[in-house]
Design a protein that fits this description.
Blueprint (H helix, E strand, L loop, with lengths): L9 H33 L3 H9 L2 H23 L3
Helix pairs in contact: 1-3
């Protein structure tokens, strides 16, 4: 199988690094939201747990993770296409 040589400029690499940094920030925010739910569980704060779950927070987190998965795949394909 012949390998394709991919050449990215420094600007292109910097752009991809910026995108990945943004993704990492979004993951960190979701991590904090999950930590809040866990803290409420540990403190047995049923009201807070029910409020967070009923607010659609878990669905939002799932949606964000799906978007992030797609964004990472796009960046991966740009760096190293199949």
């Amino acid at each position: 199988m012949e390998e394709k040589e991919i050449s990215l400029t420094n600007d292109e690499l910097a752009e991809k690094a910026t995108k990945l940094t943004g993704i990492a920030t979004r993951i960190k925010i979701m991590e904090r939201l999950i930590e809040n739910i866990e803290y409420s569980r540990i403190k047995k704060d049923d009201f807070a747990i029910h409020y967070q779950i009923n607010s659609g927070l878990l669905g939002d987190i799932k949606g964000n993770l799906s978007e992030i998965k797609g964004e990472i795949q796009v960046i991966s394909n740009e760096i190293c296409p199949d």
